[in-house]
């Protein structure tokens, strides 16, 4: 980054402006100093110089500031006289200049004592208290040099800090984008998992509607409950697909969560799995408080319950037992339990069951079902855990707050 050494000098007296040029740009001016400005030669650093632009009024200074900003050439600082002709004095000029360029640093220079430092501080307000300094005329050339050095070094240090912060933010955005892409990939796995479960139930329902034996070509009638189950399955599949779009677009739910009767969501999940439960001859015990409610989306709860019940069915052999319950707790919350009498989970695997892509099912699993369940439950302020022992089955325990 090239160092900005540009300083705007604003004073209505030509001799004083020349004095500033002589001190700050010695290569351009003869070493003739205004006696009204300074009283001794400045201490110099070899090769040190500043780029000075002059203005004789507040109006002219504002025009220069606007023009240079538009051209991408900001000033590091300004040395501004307080008393100037025209409608804009030095203090008002500085205030308007900050409206154009909030990063401008200034030195207030005056030969009068009519405005104290405290008065000026109150006029500028607290937002710019670290962006201005003060000098009374006459002052030495050394003071002018040092003020210019402070203006330039402070502005360039701040510019480097801003550039560093912008670089860090850009890197953070890049990392976030990479993480989001990875999460979208995991979500795609989730869609394959959950949508596959739903389509399996839809296909099972359609399969049972077909005539047995050789196809007779005769039309098959589906009952209203049959059609309702198919619609629920398709709606849930559409919701699962929408999860990916919602995440990828970073948009919110189309509707806010509402009070949902948990038992109704459990019934829908059991209906969707009815044929799989019957095929494996699994006995279901359902104990549900019809008044148990939580703040959620019904389709999301069905998605969670289908996932957990599918895991339970897969963990059990023929003739297993599935227990499902939902009850109100004393604090107004809801406790849901989904228990099976399957093989259970080892202590080693229990520590990892909610990890993305972790599975104990080999090629038959992709390790996203429980991760998705946990994400959905926690998005509604709930908690989920698994209680399990090898050979003693597994119980999924979900708690929703009031």
Give structural notes.
The chain folds into two domains: 6-170, Rossmann fold; 252-402, Heat Shock Protein 90 (2-Layer Sandwich), CATH 3.30.565. Helix content is 47%, strand content 17%. The protein has eleven helices and twelve strands. Strand 11 (383-388) and strand 12 form a beta hairpin. The radius of gyration is 38 Å and the shape is rod-shaped. 30% of the residues are buried.
Summarize the structure.
The chain has helices at 14-24, 58-70, 90-100, 117-124, 141-209, 224-249, 262-272, 274-279, 298-315, 347-350, 369-379, and strands at residues 6-10, 51-55, 77-81, 105-110, 132-136, 258-261, 283-288, 293-296, 321-328, 334-340, 383-388, 394-400.
- Tell me the quaternary state: single chain
Q: Work out the helicity level.
A: 40-55%
Q: Mean pLDDT, as a whole number?
A: 81
Query: Low-confidence stretches at least 5 residues in length (pLDDT < 50)?
Result: 29-35
User: First CA to last CA: what distance?
Assistant: 57 Å
Strand residue content? 15-25%
Report the top-level CATH class of the largest domain: Alpha Beta
Query: What is the number of independent domains?
Result: 2
- Count of DSSP E strands? 12
Tally of alpha and pi helices = 11
Q: From N to C, what is the helix and strand string?
A: EHEHEHEHEHHEHHEEHEEHHEE
How is the main sheet built?
5 strands, parallel
CATH architecture of the largest domain, by name, is: 3-Layer(aba) Sandwich
């Amino acid at each position: 980054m090239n160092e900005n050494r540009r300083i705007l000098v604003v004073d209505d007296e030509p001799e004083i402006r020349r004095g500033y040029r002589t001190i700050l740009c010695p290569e351009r001016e003869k070493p003739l100093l205004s006696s009204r400005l300074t009283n001794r030669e400045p201490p110099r650093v070899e090769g040190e110089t500043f780029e000075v632009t002059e203005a004789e009024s507040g109006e002219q200074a504002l025009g220069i500031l606007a023009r240079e900003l538009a051209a991408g050439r900001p000033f590091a600082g300004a040395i501004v006289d307080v008393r100037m002709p025209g409608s804009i004095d030095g203090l008002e000029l500085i205030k308007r200049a900050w409206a154009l360029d909030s990063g401008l640093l200034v030195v207030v220079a005056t030969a009068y004592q009519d405005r104290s430092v405290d008065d000026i501080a109150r006029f500028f307000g607290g937002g710019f208290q670290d962006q201005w300094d003060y000098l009374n005329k006459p002052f030495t050339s050394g003071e002018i040099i040092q003020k210019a050095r402070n203006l330039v070094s402070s502005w360039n240090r701040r510019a480097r800090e801003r550039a560093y912060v912008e670089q860090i933010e850009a890197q953070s955005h890049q990392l976030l984008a990479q993480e989001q892409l990875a999460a979208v990939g995991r979500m795609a796995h989730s869609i394959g998992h959950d949508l596959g479960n739903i389509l399996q139930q839809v296909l099972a329902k359609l399969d049972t509607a077909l005539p047995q034996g050789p196809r007779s070509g005769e039309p098959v009638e589906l009952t209203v409950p049959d059609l309702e189950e198919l619609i629920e399955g398709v709606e849930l599949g559409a919701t699962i697909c929408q999860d990916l779009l919602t995440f990828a677009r970073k948009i919110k739910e189309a509707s806010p969560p509402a009070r949902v009767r948990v038992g109704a969501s459990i019934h829908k999940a059991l209906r969707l799995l009815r044929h799989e439960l019957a095929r494996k001859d699994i006995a279901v015990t359902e104990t549900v408080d019809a008044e148990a409610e939580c703040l959620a989306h019904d389709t999301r709860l069905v998605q969670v319950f289908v996932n957990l019940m599918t895991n339970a069915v897969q963990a059990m052999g023929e003739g297993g037992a599935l227990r499902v319950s939902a009850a109100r707790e004393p604090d107004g919350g809801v406790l849901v339990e989904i228990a099976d009498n399957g093989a259970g989970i080892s202590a080693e695997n229990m520590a990892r069951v909610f990890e993305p892509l972790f599975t104990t099912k080999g090629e038959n699993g992709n390790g996203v079902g429980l991760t998705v369940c946990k994400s959905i439950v926690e998005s509604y302020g709930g908690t989920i855990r698994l209680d399990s022992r090898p050979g003693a089955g597994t119980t999924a325990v979900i708690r929703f707050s009031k």
